[in-house]
Amino acid sequence: MAVSVACCCFSFLNAPVKLQPSPLCFVAASSPRAKLNPEKKKNLKRLTVRVKEEQDCNNDGGGTQTMSAFKSSFGSKKDKKDSSHPSSDLRNDPAKIHDASFLDAVVKVYCTHTAPDYSLPWQKQRQFTSTGSAFMIGDGKLLTNAHCVEHDTQVKVKRRGDDRKYVAKVLLRGVDCDIALLSVESEDFWKGAEPLRLGHLPRLQDSVTVVGYPLGGDTISVTKGVVSRIEVTSYAHGSSDLLGIQIDAAINPGNSGGPAFNDQGECIGVAFQVYRSEETENIGYVIPTTVVSHFLTDYERNGKYTGYPCLGVLLQKLENPALRECLKVPTNEGVLVRRVEPTSDASKVLKEGDVIVSFDDLRVGCEGTVPFRSSERIAFRYLISQKFAGDIVELGIIRAGEPKKVQVVLRPRVHLVPYHIDGGQPSYIIIAGLVFTPLSEPLIEEECEDTIGLKLLTKARYSVARFRGEQIVILSQVLANEVNIGYEDMNNQQVLKFNGTHIRNIHHLAHLIDMCKDKYLVFEFEDNYVAVLEREASNSASLCILKDYGIPSERSADLRDPYVDPVDDTQALNQGFGDSPVSNLEIGFDGLVWA
Questions:
Q1: Alpha helices in 466-534 (DSSP H)
Q2: Whether pTM exceeds 0.70
Q3: Which parts of this chain are annotated as the region Disordered (predicted)?
Q4: Spatial contact of 359 and 380, defined as CB atoms under 8 Å apart
Protein backbone atom coordinates (compact mmCIF):
# COMPACT_ATOMS: atom_id res chain seq x y z
CA MET A 1 0.00 0.00 0.00
CA ALA A 2 1.33 3.39 -0.94
CA VAL A 3 1.04 5.72 2.01
CA SER A 4 1.19 9.46 1.57
CA VAL A 5 3.61 11.61 3.55
CA ALA A 6 1.29 13.71 5.68
CA CYS A 7 1.59 15.77 8.82
CA CYS A 8 -1.52 15.68 10.96
CA CYS A 9 -0.24 18.24 13.45
CA PHE A 10 -1.50 21.81 13.52
CA SER A 11 1.49 23.42 15.20
CA PHE A 12 2.85 26.93 15.24
CA LEU A 13 6.33 28.41 15.39
CA ASN A 14 9.25 26.09 16.05
CA ALA A 15 7.14 23.02 16.61
CA PRO A 16 9.22 19.82 16.43
CA VAL A 17 6.93 18.15 13.93
CA LYS A 18 8.31 15.21 11.97
CA LEU A 19 6.99 14.38 8.53
CA GLN A 20 6.77 10.62 8.32
CA PRO A 21 4.62 8.24 6.31
CA SER A 22 1.95 7.35 8.83
CA PRO A 23 -1.48 6.20 7.66
CA LEU A 24 -3.17 6.66 11.04
CA CYS A 25 -2.48 9.98 12.69
CA PHE A 26 -3.84 12.61 15.03
CA VAL A 27 -5.54 15.75 13.90
CA ALA A 28 -4.08 18.24 16.35
CA ALA A 29 -0.51 19.23 17.08
CA SER A 30 -0.02 18.19 20.66
CA SER A 31 2.43 15.38 20.74
CA PRO A 32 5.75 14.71 19.03
CA ARG A 33 4.49 11.12 18.86
CA ALA A 34 1.45 11.92 16.76
CA LYS A 35 1.64 8.76 14.70
CA LEU A 36 1.90 5.01 14.86
CA ASN A 37 5.27 3.43 15.49
CA PRO A 38 6.87 2.23 12.23
CA GLU A 39 6.56 -1.44 13.15
CA LYS A 40 2.82 -0.99 13.44
CA LYS A 41 2.23 0.85 10.19
CA LYS A 42 2.68 -2.11 7.89
CA ASN A 43 -0.05 -4.14 9.58
CA LEU A 44 -2.61 -1.40 10.11
CA LYS A 45 -4.45 -2.08 6.89
CA ARG A 46 -4.47 -5.78 7.68
CA LEU A 47 -5.95 -5.02 11.10
CA THR A 48 -8.68 -2.87 9.58
CA VAL A 49 -9.62 -5.65 7.18
CA ARG A 50 -9.55 -8.23 9.96
CA VAL A 51 -11.82 -6.29 12.26
CA LYS A 52 -14.14 -5.52 9.36
CA GLU A 53 -14.56 -9.25 8.82
CA GLU A 54 -15.43 -9.61 12.48
CA GLN A 55 -17.99 -6.82 12.43
CA ASP A 56 -19.81 -5.01 9.67
CA CYS A 57 -21.77 -3.34 12.39
CA ASN A 58 -25.19 -2.05 11.42
CA ASN A 59 -26.14 -1.44 15.04
CA ASP A 60 -29.46 -0.48 16.54
CA GLY A 61 -28.35 2.72 18.19
CA GLY A 62 -28.74 1.32 21.67
CA GLY A 63 -26.38 1.65 24.56
CA THR A 64 -26.83 3.13 27.99
CA GLN A 65 -24.97 6.10 29.41
CA THR A 66 -24.71 6.11 33.20
CA MET A 67 -23.29 9.09 35.04
CA SER A 68 -24.04 11.15 38.09
CA ALA A 69 -21.41 13.84 38.41
CA PHE A 70 -21.89 14.69 34.73
CA LYS A 71 -25.66 14.24 34.38
CA SER A 72 -26.06 17.65 32.82
CA SER A 73 -24.18 16.47 29.75
CA PHE A 74 -26.79 13.88 28.85
CA GLY A 75 -30.12 15.55 29.43
CA SER A 76 -33.39 13.77 30.10
CA LYS A 77 -35.70 12.04 27.67
CA LYS A 78 -38.11 14.88 28.10
CA ASP A 79 -35.41 17.34 27.10
CA LYS A 80 -34.57 15.30 24.04
CA LYS A 81 -38.16 15.39 22.83
CA ASP A 82 -38.54 19.10 23.48
CA SER A 83 -39.17 20.67 20.09
CA SER A 84 -38.11 24.04 21.44
CA HIS A 85 -34.47 22.96 21.53
CA PRO A 86 -32.66 24.58 18.58
CA SER A 87 -31.14 21.31 17.47
CA SER A 88 -34.54 19.67 17.00
CA ASP A 89 -35.03 21.66 13.81
CA LEU A 90 -31.90 20.17 12.26
CA ARG A 91 -33.83 17.10 11.18
CA ASN A 92 -36.17 19.23 9.14
CA ASP A 93 -33.74 21.91 8.03
CA PRO A 94 -30.03 21.05 8.29
CA ALA A 95 -29.22 24.49 6.90
CA LYS A 96 -30.09 25.94 10.30
CA ILE A 97 -27.04 24.37 11.91
CA HIS A 98 -25.22 27.68 11.85
CA ASP A 99 -27.91 29.06 14.18
CA ALA A 100 -27.89 26.05 16.54
CA SER A 101 -26.97 27.02 20.09
CA PHE A 102 -25.02 23.81 20.70
CA LEU A 103 -22.24 25.20 18.52
CA ASP A 104 -21.51 27.68 21.33
CA ALA A 105 -20.46 24.76 23.54
CA VAL A 106 -17.53 24.02 21.21
CA VAL A 107 -14.35 25.93 22.12
CA LYS A 108 -10.90 26.36 20.65
CA VAL A 109 -7.94 25.01 22.63
CA TYR A 110 -4.52 26.68 22.65
CA CYS A 111 -1.83 24.52 24.21
CA THR A 112 1.86 25.08 24.86
CA HIS A 113 3.78 21.81 25.06
CA THR A 114 7.18 21.05 26.54
CA ALA A 115 7.97 17.41 25.90
CA PRO A 116 10.75 15.45 27.61
CA ASP A 117 13.99 14.83 25.77
CA TYR A 118 14.24 11.05 26.02
CA SER A 119 17.78 10.95 24.67
CA LEU A 120 18.88 13.59 27.22
CA PRO A 121 16.46 12.68 30.03
CA TRP A 122 17.59 15.43 32.42
CA GLN A 123 16.14 18.16 30.19
CA LYS A 124 13.12 19.12 28.11
CA GLN A 125 12.75 19.74 24.41
CA ARG A 126 12.07 23.19 23.03
CA GLN A 127 8.48 24.19 23.65
CA PHE A 128 5.94 24.45 20.85
CA THR A 129 2.30 25.42 20.54
CA SER A 130 -0.75 23.85 18.93
CA THR A 131 -4.48 24.33 18.61
CA GLY A 132 -7.31 21.87 18.91
CA SER A 133 -10.95 21.73 19.92
CA ALA A 134 -12.96 20.91 23.05
CA PHE A 135 -16.58 21.04 24.19
CA MET A 136 -18.57 21.61 27.37
CA ILE A 137 -20.07 18.58 29.13
CA GLY A 138 -21.44 20.21 32.27
CA ASP A 139 -20.27 20.57 35.88
CA GLY A 140 -17.73 23.17 34.75
CA LYS A 141 -15.80 20.66 32.66
CA LEU A 142 -14.55 20.46 29.09
CA LEU A 143 -13.72 17.34 27.11
CA THR A 144 -10.93 17.10 24.53
CA ASN A 145 -8.32 14.62 23.27
CA ALA A 146 -5.43 13.58 25.49
CA HIS A 147 -2.96 14.19 22.68
CA CYS A 148 -4.19 17.80 22.41
CA VAL A 149 -2.83 18.57 25.88
CA GLU A 150 0.03 16.08 26.19
CA HIS A 151 3.09 17.48 28.00
CA ASP A 152 1.21 20.74 28.54
CA THR A 153 2.77 23.71 30.30
CA GLN A 154 -0.12 26.07 29.53
CA VAL A 155 -3.65 25.50 28.22
CA LYS A 156 -6.05 28.25 27.17
CA VAL A 157 -9.52 28.06 25.67
CA LYS A 158 -11.66 30.53 23.72
CA ARG A 159 -15.38 30.44 23.13
CA ARG A 160 -17.08 31.05 19.82
CA GLY A 161 -17.61 34.75 19.17
CA ASP A 162 -15.35 35.81 22.05
CA ASP A 163 -11.93 37.41 21.74
CA ARG A 164 -10.78 36.54 25.26
CA LYS A 165 -8.78 33.43 26.11
CA TYR A 166 -9.29 31.72 29.48
CA VAL A 167 -6.73 29.61 31.32
CA ALA A 168 -7.77 25.95 31.61
CA LYS A 169 -6.46 23.20 33.87
CA VAL A 170 -5.95 19.58 32.82
CA LEU A 171 -7.71 17.48 35.46
CA LEU A 172 -6.78 14.09 34.04
CA ARG A 173 -5.80 12.31 30.86
CA GLY A 174 -6.81 8.91 29.58
CA VAL A 175 -3.91 8.06 27.31
CA ASP A 176 -5.28 4.69 26.19
CA CYS A 177 -8.66 6.15 25.17
CA ASP A 178 -7.19 9.53 24.06
CA ILE A 179 -9.53 11.63 26.21
CA ALA A 180 -8.70 14.48 28.59
CA LEU A 181 -10.84 16.42 31.07
CA LEU A 182 -10.32 20.17 31.47
CA SER A 183 -11.71 22.72 33.90
CA VAL A 184 -11.94 26.52 33.70
CA GLU A 185 -12.23 28.47 36.95
CA SER A 186 -13.35 31.80 35.46
CA GLU A 187 -17.08 32.35 35.96
CA ASP A 188 -17.20 34.66 32.95
CA PHE A 189 -16.27 31.76 30.70
CA TRP A 190 -19.40 29.82 31.68
CA LYS A 191 -21.93 32.65 31.41
CA GLY A 192 -24.77 31.60 29.13
CA ALA A 193 -23.11 28.27 28.41
CA GLU A 194 -25.17 25.14 27.79
CA PRO A 195 -23.40 21.78 27.97
CA LEU A 196 -23.84 19.26 25.21
CA ARG A 197 -26.08 16.23 25.49
CA LEU A 198 -24.34 12.93 24.84
CA GLY A 199 -26.31 10.63 22.57
CA HIS A 200 -26.17 6.91 21.91
CA LEU A 201 -24.26 4.96 19.30
CA PRO A 202 -25.50 5.92 15.84
CA ARG A 203 -26.64 3.58 13.10
CA LEU A 204 -24.75 2.95 9.90
CA GLN A 205 -25.39 5.68 7.32
CA ASP A 206 -26.69 8.06 9.99
CA SER A 207 -25.79 11.66 9.26
CA VAL A 208 -22.93 13.07 11.32
CA THR A 209 -21.68 16.63 11.69
CA VAL A 210 -18.12 17.32 12.89
CA VAL A 211 -17.54 20.68 14.56
CA GLY A 212 -14.22 22.18 15.56
CA TYR A 213 -11.46 24.62 14.79
CA PRO A 214 -9.25 23.05 12.10
CA LEU A 215 -6.54 24.80 10.14
CA GLY A 216 -7.57 27.08 7.33
CA GLY A 217 -9.22 29.75 9.45
CA ASP A 218 -9.83 31.01 12.97
CA THR A 219 -13.60 30.58 13.23
CA ILE A 220 -15.60 27.46 13.89
CA SER A 221 -15.82 24.86 11.10
CA VAL A 222 -18.62 22.43 10.29
CA THR A 223 -18.32 19.37 8.03
CA LYS A 224 -20.96 16.74 7.31
CA GLY A 225 -20.91 13.08 6.40
CA VAL A 226 -22.31 9.70 7.39
CA VAL A 227 -21.36 6.87 9.72
CA SER A 228 -19.45 4.33 7.64
CA ARG A 229 -18.54 1.69 10.22
CA ILE A 230 -18.63 0.92 13.94
CA GLU A 231 -16.08 -1.58 15.21
CA VAL A 232 -13.10 -2.17 17.47
CA THR A 233 -10.50 0.34 16.25
CA SER A 234 -6.80 0.89 16.85
CA TYR A 235 -6.28 4.09 18.86
CA ALA A 236 -2.98 5.54 17.65
CA HIS A 237 -2.23 7.71 20.68
CA GLY A 238 -2.76 5.03 23.31
CA SER A 239 -1.86 2.02 21.16
CA SER A 240 -5.07 0.36 22.35
CA ASP A 241 -8.04 -1.32 20.70
CA LEU A 242 -11.41 0.20 21.64
CA LEU A 243 -14.76 0.80 20.01
CA GLY A 244 -14.58 3.47 17.32
CA ILE A 245 -16.88 5.14 14.79
CA GLN A 246 -15.60 5.56 11.25
CA ILE A 247 -17.08 8.47 9.32
CA ASP A 248 -16.54 10.07 5.91
CA ALA A 249 -16.89 13.67 7.12
CA ALA A 250 -13.69 15.68 6.71
CA ILE A 251 -11.48 15.72 9.80
CA ASN A 252 -8.45 17.98 9.59
CA PRO A 253 -5.62 19.14 11.85
CA GLY A 254 -7.19 21.14 14.67
CA ASN A 255 -10.44 19.12 14.72
CA SER A 256 -9.06 16.87 17.47
CA GLY A 257 -11.21 17.04 20.59
CA GLY A 258 -14.20 18.50 18.75
CA PRO A 259 -17.63 16.87 18.96
CA ALA A 260 -19.50 14.94 16.29
CA PHE A 261 -23.27 15.47 16.27
CA ASN A 262 -26.25 13.55 14.98
CA ASP A 263 -29.25 15.27 13.36
CA GLN A 264 -30.83 15.79 16.78
CA GLY A 265 -27.93 17.93 17.94
CA GLU A 266 -26.69 15.25 20.34
CA CYS A 267 -22.97 14.56 20.65
CA ILE A 268 -22.23 11.04 19.45
CA GLY A 269 -18.47 11.19 19.99
CA VAL A 270 -15.14 13.00 19.83
CA ALA A 271 -13.13 13.44 16.61
CA PHE A 272 -9.58 12.17 17.18
CA GLN A 273 -7.74 10.63 14.20
CA VAL A 274 -7.72 10.04 10.46
CA TYR A 275 -6.49 7.33 8.11
CA ARG A 276 -4.54 8.61 5.12
CA SER A 277 -3.11 6.76 2.16
CA GLU A 278 -3.17 6.92 -1.62
CA GLU A 279 -5.77 4.16 -1.71
CA THR A 280 -8.28 5.78 0.63
CA GLU A 281 -9.88 9.15 1.27
CA ASN A 282 -12.21 10.71 3.83
CA ILE A 283 -11.68 8.12 6.54
CA GLY A 284 -11.98 9.76 9.93
CA TYR A 285 -12.53 8.29 13.38
CA VAL A 286 -14.67 9.37 16.31
CA ILE A 287 -14.46 8.17 19.90
CA PRO A 288 -18.01 7.01 20.73
CA THR A 289 -19.92 8.17 23.80
CA THR A 290 -19.64 4.69 25.33
CA VAL A 291 -15.88 5.21 25.64
CA VAL A 292 -16.42 8.76 26.92
CA SER A 293 -18.85 7.46 29.55
CA HIS A 294 -16.35 4.78 30.62
CA PHE A 295 -13.66 7.45 31.04
CA LEU A 296 -15.89 9.73 33.13
CA THR A 297 -17.28 6.88 35.25
CA ASP A 298 -13.76 5.67 35.99
CA TYR A 299 -12.86 9.15 37.21
CA GLU A 300 -16.04 9.39 39.27
CA ARG A 301 -15.47 6.02 40.94
CA ASN A 302 -11.79 6.36 41.75
CA GLY A 303 -11.05 10.08 41.83
CA LYS A 304 -8.45 9.40 39.12
CA TYR A 305 -8.17 7.60 35.83
CA THR A 306 -7.16 3.94 36.25
CA GLY A 307 -7.31 2.93 32.58
CA TYR A 308 -8.87 0.11 30.61
CA PRO A 309 -8.31 -3.41 31.92
CA CYS A 310 -7.16 -6.43 29.94
CA LEU A 311 -7.45 -10.18 30.21
CA GLY A 312 -3.77 -10.69 29.39
CA VAL A 313 -4.03 -13.65 27.03
CA LEU A 314 -3.04 -14.29 23.42
CA LEU A 315 -5.91 -16.04 21.63
CA GLN A 316 -6.09 -18.13 18.47
CA LYS A 317 -9.23 -18.56 16.42
CA LEU A 318 -10.75 -22.04 16.13
CA GLU A 319 -12.18 -21.95 12.62
CA ASN A 320 -10.60 -25.29 11.63
CA PRO A 321 -12.81 -28.31 12.47
CA ALA A 322 -9.83 -30.63 13.00
CA LEU A 323 -8.35 -28.19 15.51
CA ARG A 324 -11.60 -28.06 17.45
CA GLU A 325 -11.88 -31.84 17.40
CA CYS A 326 -8.31 -32.21 18.66
CA LEU A 327 -9.08 -29.86 21.56
CA LYS A 328 -12.36 -31.72 22.28
CA VAL A 329 -14.51 -28.69 21.62
CA PRO A 330 -17.94 -30.09 20.71
CA THR A 331 -19.42 -26.93 19.17
CA ASN A 332 -18.43 -24.33 16.60
CA GLU A 333 -17.24 -21.82 19.18
CA GLY A 334 -14.40 -20.80 21.44
CA VAL A 335 -10.89 -19.34 21.14
CA LEU A 336 -7.66 -21.08 22.09
CA VAL A 337 -5.36 -19.63 24.77
CA ARG A 338 -1.84 -19.62 23.32
CA ARG A 339 -0.10 -17.44 25.86
CA VAL A 340 -0.88 -15.91 29.27
CA GLU A 341 0.97 -12.81 30.47
CA PRO A 342 2.74 -13.52 33.79
CA THR A 343 1.66 -10.12 35.18
CA SER A 344 -2.06 -10.72 34.58
CA ASP A 345 -4.39 -12.32 37.11
CA ALA A 346 -5.42 -14.74 34.37
CA SER A 347 -2.05 -16.47 34.84
CA LYS A 348 -3.40 -17.88 38.12
CA VAL A 349 -6.39 -19.65 36.56
CA LEU A 350 -5.77 -20.03 32.80
CA LYS A 351 -3.26 -22.25 31.03
CA GLU A 352 -1.98 -22.58 27.50
CA GLY A 353 -4.33 -24.95 25.68
CA ASP A 354 -7.47 -23.78 27.45
CA VAL A 355 -10.40 -22.87 25.20
CA ILE A 356 -12.49 -19.87 26.24
CA VAL A 357 -16.11 -20.50 25.19
CA SER A 358 -17.95 -17.83 27.19
CA PHE A 359 -17.43 -14.47 28.88
CA ASP A 360 -19.94 -13.67 31.64
CA ASP A 361 -22.29 -16.27 30.06
CA LEU A 362 -22.00 -14.65 26.62
CA ARG A 363 -20.87 -17.25 24.09
CA VAL A 364 -17.63 -16.60 22.18
CA GLY A 365 -17.57 -17.66 18.52
CA CYS A 366 -14.76 -19.58 16.85
CA GLU A 367 -13.64 -16.39 15.08
CA GLY A 368 -13.21 -14.57 18.39
CA THR A 369 -16.44 -12.60 18.09
CA VAL A 370 -19.48 -12.15 20.33
CA PRO A 371 -23.06 -10.97 19.69
CA PHE A 372 -23.37 -7.19 19.37
CA ARG A 373 -26.66 -5.29 19.26
CA SER A 374 -29.47 -7.12 17.54
CA SER A 375 -27.97 -9.33 14.85
CA GLU A 376 -24.33 -8.31 14.51
CA ARG A 377 -21.07 -9.53 15.97
CA ILE A 378 -18.00 -7.72 17.28
CA ALA A 379 -14.48 -8.63 18.42
CA PHE A 380 -14.36 -10.46 21.75
CA ARG A 381 -12.09 -7.85 23.31
CA TYR A 382 -14.95 -5.35 23.11
CA LEU A 383 -16.51 -7.06 26.14
CA ILE A 384 -13.32 -6.54 28.13
CA SER A 385 -13.28 -2.85 27.26
CA GLN A 386 -16.70 -2.44 28.88
CA LYS A 387 -15.25 -3.46 32.26
CA PHE A 388 -13.26 -1.47 34.80
CA ALA A 389 -9.99 -2.20 36.54
CA GLY A 390 -10.69 -4.56 39.44
CA ASP A 391 -13.87 -6.05 37.94
CA ILE A 392 -14.27 -9.82 38.21
CA VAL A 393 -15.49 -11.76 35.17
CA GLU A 394 -16.50 -15.38 34.79
CA LEU A 395 -15.02 -17.34 31.93
CA GLY A 396 -16.36 -20.60 30.61
CA ILE A 397 -13.45 -22.74 29.46
CA ILE A 398 -12.77 -26.22 28.13
CA ARG A 399 -9.61 -27.80 29.54
CA ALA A 400 -8.61 -31.21 28.18
CA GLY A 401 -12.20 -31.76 27.09
CA GLU A 402 -13.71 -30.85 30.46
CA PRO A 403 -15.90 -27.74 30.79
CA LYS A 404 -15.07 -25.44 33.70
CA LYS A 405 -15.99 -22.05 35.11
CA VAL A 406 -13.22 -19.75 36.36
CA GLN A 407 -13.17 -16.18 37.66
CA VAL A 408 -10.56 -13.62 36.64
CA VAL A 409 -9.80 -10.15 37.99
CA LEU A 410 -9.25 -7.66 35.18
CA ARG A 411 -6.40 -5.16 35.56
CA PRO A 412 -4.63 -2.69 33.25
CA ARG A 413 -1.92 -4.25 31.14
CA VAL A 414 1.70 -4.03 32.25
CA HIS A 415 3.98 -2.94 29.40
CA LEU A 416 7.61 -3.99 29.48
CA VAL A 417 8.36 -1.15 27.06
CA PRO A 418 5.80 1.60 27.81
CA TYR A 419 4.18 3.72 25.13
CA HIS A 420 3.94 6.69 27.48
CA ILE A 421 5.96 7.71 30.52
CA ASP A 422 4.03 8.22 33.75
CA GLY A 423 4.84 11.61 35.24
CA GLY A 424 6.18 12.88 31.92
CA GLN A 425 9.92 12.86 32.62
CA PRO A 426 11.93 9.65 32.06
CA SER A 427 14.07 8.13 34.80
CA TYR A 428 17.85 8.15 34.47
CA ILE A 429 21.08 7.70 36.43
CA ILE A 430 24.59 8.78 35.39
CA ILE A 431 27.57 6.81 36.70
CA ALA A 432 31.01 8.08 35.65
CA GLY A 433 29.46 9.47 32.47
CA LEU A 434 27.50 6.30 31.66
CA VAL A 435 23.87 7.34 31.16
CA PHE A 436 21.33 4.62 32.03
CA THR A 437 17.59 4.93 31.30
CA PRO A 438 14.64 2.55 30.70
CA LEU A 439 13.75 1.62 27.14
CA SER A 440 10.47 3.18 26.01
CA GLU A 441 8.61 3.70 22.76
CA PRO A 442 9.20 7.49 22.85
CA LEU A 443 12.93 6.82 23.19
CA ILE A 444 12.86 4.37 20.27
CA GLU A 445 11.09 6.94 18.12
CA GLU A 446 13.41 9.76 19.13
CA GLU A 447 16.58 7.73 18.59
CA CYS A 448 15.29 6.11 15.36
CA GLU A 449 15.13 2.36 14.97
CA ASP A 450 18.46 2.12 13.16
CA THR A 451 20.40 3.39 16.18
CA ILE A 452 18.43 1.32 18.69
CA GLY A 453 19.45 -1.94 17.08
CA LEU A 454 17.59 -5.04 15.96
CA LYS A 455 17.97 -6.95 19.22
CA LEU A 456 16.43 -4.21 21.38
CA LEU A 457 13.68 -3.66 18.84
CA THR A 458 12.90 -7.38 18.89
CA LYS A 459 12.61 -7.35 22.67
CA ALA A 460 10.41 -4.26 22.55
CA ARG A 461 8.06 -5.85 20.01
CA TYR A 462 8.06 -9.46 21.22
CA SER A 463 8.55 -9.46 24.98
CA VAL A 464 6.06 -9.08 27.79
CA ALA A 465 6.90 -8.16 31.37
CA ARG A 466 7.73 -11.17 33.55
CA PHE A 467 6.77 -9.31 36.73
CA ARG A 468 5.26 -5.96 37.64
CA GLY A 469 7.88 -3.24 37.67
CA GLU A 470 10.23 -4.90 35.18
CA GLN A 471 12.05 -2.62 32.76
CA ILE A 472 14.64 -3.00 30.02
CA VAL A 473 17.47 -0.76 31.24
CA ILE A 474 19.84 0.49 28.56
CA LEU A 475 23.08 2.43 28.42
CA SER A 476 21.80 5.36 26.37
CA GLN A 477 25.17 7.05 25.81
CA VAL A 478 28.54 7.76 27.39
CA LEU A 479 29.58 11.30 28.33
CA ALA A 480 33.26 11.17 27.48
CA ASN A 481 35.73 11.60 30.35
CA GLU A 482 39.10 10.11 31.20
CA VAL A 483 37.44 7.84 33.77
CA ASN A 484 35.46 6.03 31.03
CA ILE A 485 38.17 5.80 28.36
CA GLY A 486 37.40 2.99 25.90
CA TYR A 487 33.65 3.14 26.44
CA GLU A 488 32.90 6.43 24.63
CA ASP A 489 31.29 4.81 21.60
CA MET A 490 28.86 2.65 23.57
CA ASN A 491 25.17 3.53 23.17
CA ASN A 492 21.74 1.93 23.28
CA GLN A 493 22.88 -1.36 24.78
CA GLN A 494 20.91 -3.28 27.37
CA VAL A 495 22.64 -3.74 30.71
CA LEU A 496 21.80 -7.14 32.18
CA LYS A 497 23.81 -7.38 35.40
CA PHE A 498 25.61 -5.21 37.89
CA ASN A 499 28.34 -6.94 39.89
CA GLY A 500 26.74 -10.28 39.06
CA THR A 501 23.16 -9.32 40.02
CA HIS A 502 20.39 -9.32 37.43
CA ILE A 503 18.94 -5.82 36.97
CA ARG A 504 15.16 -5.65 37.37
CA ASN A 505 14.57 -1.97 36.60
CA ILE A 506 16.31 1.41 36.68
CA HIS A 507 15.49 1.93 40.36
CA HIS A 508 17.00 -1.45 41.19
CA LEU A 509 20.20 -0.50 39.35
CA ALA A 510 20.44 2.77 41.30
CA HIS A 511 19.91 0.84 44.54
CA LEU A 512 22.64 -1.69 43.71
CA ILE A 513 25.10 1.09 42.90
CA ASP A 514 24.28 2.98 46.11
CA MET A 515 24.80 -0.16 48.21
CA CYS A 516 27.99 -1.23 46.46
CA LYS A 517 31.15 -1.32 48.60
CA ASP A 518 33.30 -3.26 46.12
CA LYS A 519 36.39 -1.76 44.53
CA TYR A 520 35.00 -2.10 41.01
CA LEU A 521 31.68 -1.40 39.33
CA VAL A 522 31.09 -4.19 36.81
CA PHE A 523 28.36 -3.78 34.20
CA GLU A 524 27.47 -6.76 32.00
CA PHE A 525 25.70 -5.94 28.73
CA GLU A 526 23.95 -7.80 25.96
CA ASP A 527 26.28 -9.73 23.61
CA ASN A 528 28.57 -10.60 26.56
CA TYR A 529 30.19 -7.16 26.63
CA VAL A 530 31.50 -5.96 30.00
CA ALA A 531 32.45 -2.51 31.29
CA VAL A 532 34.42 -2.04 34.53
CA LEU A 533 34.91 1.19 36.46
CA GLU A 534 36.89 1.89 39.62
CA ARG A 535 34.30 2.92 42.22
CA GLU A 536 36.18 5.68 44.04
CA ALA A 537 37.48 7.19 40.78
CA SER A 538 33.96 7.15 39.39
CA ASN A 539 32.58 8.96 42.43
CA SER A 540 35.33 11.58 42.21
CA ALA A 541 34.70 12.22 38.50
CA SER A 542 30.91 12.51 38.76
CA LEU A 543 30.72 16.17 39.81
CA CYS A 544 33.20 17.21 37.13
CA ILE A 545 31.24 15.37 34.43
CA LEU A 546 27.94 16.92 35.53
CA LYS A 547 29.51 20.39 35.45
CA ASP A 548 31.16 19.89 32.06
CA TYR A 549 27.91 18.79 30.44
CA GLY A 550 25.60 21.19 32.29
CA ILE A 551 23.57 18.46 33.96
CA PRO A 552 21.76 19.47 37.18
CA SER A 553 21.71 16.06 38.87
CA GLU A 554 23.26 12.64 38.48
CA ARG A 555 19.85 10.96 38.74
CA SER A 556 16.16 11.72 38.27
CA ALA A 557 14.11 12.70 41.31
CA ASP A 558 12.16 9.43 41.44
CA LEU A 559 15.36 7.43 41.98
CA ARG A 560 15.98 9.24 45.27
CA ASP A 561 13.05 7.43 46.87
CA PRO A 562 13.67 4.17 48.79
CA TYR A 563 13.79 1.12 46.55
CA VAL A 564 11.06 -1.53 46.89
CA ASP A 565 11.68 -4.94 45.30
CA PRO A 566 8.83 -5.62 42.82
CA VAL A 567 9.44 -9.38 42.53
CA ASP A 568 7.39 -11.72 44.71
CA ASP A 569 8.38 -14.87 42.85
CA THR A 570 12.12 -15.20 42.20
CA GLN A 571 11.39 -17.75 39.49
CA ALA A 572 10.09 -14.91 37.32
CA LEU A 573 13.67 -13.66 36.88
CA ASN A 574 14.65 -16.94 35.27
CA GLN A 575 11.90 -16.85 32.64
CA GLY A 576 13.13 -16.02 29.17
CA PHE A 577 11.81 -13.30 26.91
CA GLY A 578 8.90 -14.25 24.70
CA ASP A 579 8.60 -14.96 21.03
CA SER A 580 5.10 -13.59 20.39
CA PRO A 581 4.23 -10.04 19.29
CA VAL A 582 3.14 -7.87 22.21
CA SER A 583 0.34 -6.05 20.38
CA ASN A 584 -2.27 -6.85 17.75
CA LEU A 585 -0.75 -4.43 15.25
CA GLU A 586 2.43 -6.49 15.09
CA ILE A 587 0.73 -9.84 14.50
CA GLY A 588 1.22 -10.83 10.88
CA PHE A 589 -2.19 -12.45 10.29
CA ASP A 590 -5.67 -12.45 11.77
CA GLY A 591 -5.55 -15.90 13.39
CA LEU A 592 -4.06 -14.54 16.63
CA VAL A 593 -5.27 -11.65 18.75
CA TRP A 594 -4.42 -10.23 22.18
CA ALA A 595 -7.33 -9.79 24.58
A1: 506-515
A2: yes
A3: 53-93
A4: yes
